[in-house]
Design brief:
By secondary structure, the protein is mainly alpha-helical. The chain is built from 26 helices and no strands. Keywords: Coiled coil.
Length: 541
């Protein structure tokens, strides 16, 4: 074809474009990229910059760069394509709207949520107007817009969109279509984040069963459902149910996708997180290292997923009190995210927040305070004052001030954060309960016991309601209230709660875990204090 028509002939360029697409389908992205560059150069020379094929070639080149995570190269191409398509084809043309959608995806990936949202809305509204609300393209754009709203903390708006998408998919494609199941999966993840765990579980079970029937046990989508259901049980504190789901997903992905596939490495990361939550840190560490080593090999040391693994291992090492290596990894993750994602990306701000927590643990409270201030300022600008990430950073900043003995300043922050959490998230949300616990802890430290007690009781009631009596967080809530009651010399009530904590810790963690040992010591101290109190009363009577 090249010899017959010449390399710049339109038919040759069309054939090269098809060949590039074929390369993309088999993940030969470097070969595809080279062909897309040649097609783009040929279209410019042969057809001119204003020709629709040339405009399409810009989008194709940008999209392959995007897929290869070369975002800085992709961005100016997409911006150029959008500008030229808007001018030549019109702002409501479907090709223009698709480019707007692609640019929105890129901005979101870079953490520029404020730039992504108007482009998503432009694409969604335009596509819906041209194609109707029940078109698959429109529904996919709606899914992405919902994901952005979720990232911005506007969960109710995201939920409304996700429900709209799932209804549309069911009407258009049926209950068992692949896209319908994906929409159910997306809605379930959102419900999960909002703490609506019962409805999320029902949806995830429905999607898992349908995928097993349609695709088989070992299809990647089925394995993803197993992983998602494990994640739900993990959040719920149903660790004994989460573990077999995470394990099955990991083993299935190792067999089907290979040891170094990104999804396999993600499953290793998830199982490690579960082991960490169950206090089995020795089992968590090799899995976190497997995930990090694999991602470094496959994706490179500066890939966002690699930096996430770096951060996760650092947080584990922090918990294991291996503070030197933890600090090195946290700084590596932070430096990488600053370079790759920018100073103001959501993940970068998470790294700053994590490093601040480590500095706080090492007693470097001034360093921690500066880092918390940077994270808080960045999150307020990026996400707003009432986003959950902003609220939690503000809470952590307050804890840092509390550690420095600045009780008045910390209390003002805790009161403001708790007010915003209750207003934005509701009184039973896990973050609201965390902030109430922080304020209760401050009041306890200030020996304002009567003010602290209702807060600790609110926290314990909320945790039991949301997670059940046996969840580790519920046991921590019970422990905090028990310690307060002990300080108030209400030893019988304290002993009753300490016994509950001890029983729960033993069942979950075993007799030798540090939390179980501490619970046993608290229980013994409460019993001894109660016995002394009873003896004094008998003496005086």
């Amino acid at each position: 074809m090249v010899q017959q028509h010449g390399r710049l002939h339109a038919k040759t360029l069309t054939l090269m474009n098809h060949q590039a697409l074929a390369y993309r389908d088999v993940d030969k992205n470097e070969e595809a990229l080279q062909l897309y560059r040649e097609v783009h150069d040929g279209c410019k020379e042969t057809l001119g910059m204003q020709h629709p094929y040339t405009l399409a070639s810009i989008s194709n080149l940008a999209n392959i760069l995007f897929e290869m995570d070369r975002l800085e190269e992709a961005r100016p191409l997409l911006e150029e394509a959008l500008e030229r398509q808007s001018e030549m084809l019109g702002p409501r043309h479907l090709d223009t709207l698709q480019t707007a959608h692609s640019l929105a995806l890129l901005f979101e990936e870079q953490g520029h949520l404020d730039k992504a949202e108007p482009l998503y809305i432009r694409a969604y509204e335009g596509q819906k107007s041209s194609l109707g609300p029940k078109n698959p393209t429109v529904l996919q754009t709606a899914v992405n817009l919902a994901g952005l709203k979720q990232a911005c903390g506007r969960l109710r708006e995201a939920e409304d969109l996700d429900r709209e998408v799932m209804t549309g998919c069911r009407e258009l494609l049926g209950d068992r279509d692949v896209q319908t199941l994906q929409s159910g999966n997306s809605l379930a993840r959102l419900l999960h984040e909002q703490g609506m765990l019962q409805e999320a579980e029902e949806l995830l079970l429905e999607v898992l069963q349908a995928r097993i029937e349609l695709l088989g046990d070992n299809d990647p989508a089925t394995l993803a459902s197993l992983n998602n259901l494990g994640g739900l049980y993990y959040t719920w504190g149903r660790f004994s149910e989460a573990e077999p789901h995470f394990f099955a997903a990991l083993e299935g992905r190792r067999a089907v996708l290979g040891l170094l596939h990104p999804d396999t490495l993600q499953s290793a990361n998830n199982l490690a997180s579960l082991f960490q939550a169950r206090g089995r840190l020795d089992k968590a560490e090799p899995l976190f290292r497997e995930s990090l080593d694999g991602r470094r090999e496959v994706l490179g040391v500066r890939h966002p997923d690699t930096l996430t693994s770096c951060s996760n291992l650092a947080v584990l090492l922090h918990a294991m009190n291996q503070l030197q290596e933890a600090e090195e990894l946290m700084k590596e993750a932070l430096e990488g995210r600053r370079q790759v994602l920018s100073d103001h990306h959501r993940d970068t701000l998470t790294s700053i927040n994590n490093l601040a927590g480590l500095m706080r643990s090492r007693g470097k409270h001034v360093d921690a305070e500066l880092l918390y201030q940077e994270a808080l300022t960045g999150r307020k600008k990026l996400l707003g004052n009432t986003h959950v990430d902003t609220l939690m950073t503000a809470n952590n900043y307050g804890l840092c001030l509390l550690n420095r003995g600045l009780l008045k300043e910390a209390e003002a922050i805790f009161l403001e954060v708790l007010k915003n959490c209750r207003k934005t998230l509701g009184v039973k949300h896990s973050y609201t309960l965390t902030c109430a616990n922080s304020l209760g802890g401050l009041l306890h430290e200030a020996e304002r016991y009567d003010e602290a007690e209702p807060l600790f009781r609110e926290v314990l009631s909320g945790l039991r309601s949301q997670l059940g009596d046996k969840h580790p967080d519920s046991l921590t809530g019970a422990n905090n209230l028990a310690v307060l009651l002990f300080a108030k010399e209400e030893f019988a009530k304290a002993a009753e709660l300490f016994q509950e904590v001890l029983t729960g810790r033993r069942a979950q963690l075993g007799d030798k875990h540090p939390d179980t040992v501490q619970a046993a010591r608290h229980m013994a101290a409460a019993q001894q204090a109660r016995a002394r109190c009873c003896k004094r009363l008998q003496t005086h009577t």
